[in-house]
Design the sequence.
């Protein structure tokens, strides 16, 4: 075994697909790219995610307690990266990147029409926000686009490198 740089450990453990997180505050919608998230419970579905205090979306999420996690397929990767490389402080990202906001059923934040899944969320626990910018979200409504069968997701590997969702294997398990 060789030493591995601690600054690159996250590249080994990056858990899930890169997603878009939308918020809405004072009538203004925003969308950001996020890859630091994980499932923490099945029922109800709880998702933990890091939204940095440096991100424009942090304040809206903290103040409204609502967001949407939209899951893009690989064909949206260039837009997803461009969204992540810009700030909602000075860019109206939905129009700048050609995304279509759709009304959600349970929260004020918009769905993203181009994504194959959208999860409407409410903040369930914010006790770790002051120290770690970690929000625990409860998914209160979920949507999927049947017009995008078997979409491939992108997974951040660090420094502009992504893996694309690959072959699916089924191995019997007692887990749901």
Sequence:
């Amino acid at each position: 075994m060789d030493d591995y740089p601690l600054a690159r450990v996250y590249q080994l453990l990056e858990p899930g697909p890169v997603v878009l997180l939308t918020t809405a505050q004072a009538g203004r919608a925003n969308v950001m790219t996020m890859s630091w998230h994980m499932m923490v419970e099945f029922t109800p579905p709880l998702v933990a995610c890091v939204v940095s205090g440096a991100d424009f979306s942090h304040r809206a999420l903290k103040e409204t307690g609502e967001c949407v996690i939209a899951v893009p397929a690989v064909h949206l990767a260039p837009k997803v990266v461009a969204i992540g490389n810009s700030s909602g402080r000075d860019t109206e990202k939905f129009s700048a990147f050609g995304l279509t906001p759709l009304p959600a059923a349970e929260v004020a934040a918009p769905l993203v029409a181009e994504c194959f899944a959208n999860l409407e969320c409410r903040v369930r626990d914010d006790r770790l926000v002051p120290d770690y910018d970690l929000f625990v979200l409860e998914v209160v409504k979920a949507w999927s686009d049947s017009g995008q069968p078997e979409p491939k997701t992108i997974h951040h590997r660090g420094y502009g490198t992504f893996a694309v969702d690959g072959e699916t294997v089924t191995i019997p398990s007692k887990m749901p």
User: Anything to note?
Assistant: The first helix runs from residue 9 to 13. The radius of gyration is 16 Å.
